Amino acid sequence: MGAGLSVMDGFIAATANVHQLTLVTRNMGDFAPLGNDLFNPWS
Questions:
Q1: What share of the chain is helix, strand, coil (3-state, %, to 5)?
Q2: 3-class DSSP state for residue 26?
Q3: pTM (2 decimals)?
Q4: Residue-range definition of the domain harbouring residue 13
């Protein structure tokens, strides 16, 4: 089992969720289970 989500990643995800924003990241694996809309511009 992994270490879980960092506090800063949690703040980023929560902010995107509250404001109904797409979260832009290349770290899709950490954010995917949270249900945010995600976009990876590097893929």
A1: 45, 10, 45
A2: coil
A3: 0.80
A4: 7-39
